[in-house]
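Exercise 3.2. Students should predict the tertiary structure of the chain below and write it as C-alpha cells, then compare their answer with the key that follows.

Predict this chain's 3D structure.
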Amino acid sequence: MANKSVFATIAGKLLPPADARNHEGAQAYRLSPEQALAQLAATGTFNATFYAESREQLDEVLKLAWQVKPGFLARTAVHAFEQGYMKDMPAFLLAVLSGMRGNEFDSVFGRIVKNGKMLRTFVQVMRSGATGRKSLGTRPKRLVQAWLEQAADFE
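Answer key:
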C-alpha cells in the first residue's frame, strides 16, 4: 500500500483550477506579465523552438517588457545574466530598459555589461532596431563611452 502521507490525493483537490490553455490546447495557468516575462527570461532563447519561432519570442518579450515596471525589468535582466548565464536576453532587456524613464538603466548597466563581448551584444541589439530604435541615444552612448574609457587594454 502507498504511503498516504506522501501520496495524498487531497493536495491536488486544493489547487486552483486551470484558467488558460497552452499551445497544444491543454489546461494551463494564466501568468501575469511579470511571471510571463520572468519565465521567458529564465528559460527562453531567441532561437526557433518546437512551439515558437525566434521572432515570435522576441515580440512576446518586447510586449511583456513594456507592461512591467522598469525596476522589475532591471531585476529580471540582472537575474538572467547573473543566475541564468545568458547573453542575448539580458542585453535585449537592457536595451528595452534604456528607452524607459527612470535611473534603473544606469544602475544595472555595469552589472550586465562586464566585458567587451556583452558590450558588443548590447550595441548590436540597440543598432538592430529590435527595441524600436536604431540609434544608441544619449544615455546608452554615455554609458558605453564610460565603459570603453575605463576598460583595460586586454579586455
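Discussion points: The two ends are 63 Å apart (CA to CA). DSSP finds eight helices and two strands in the chain.
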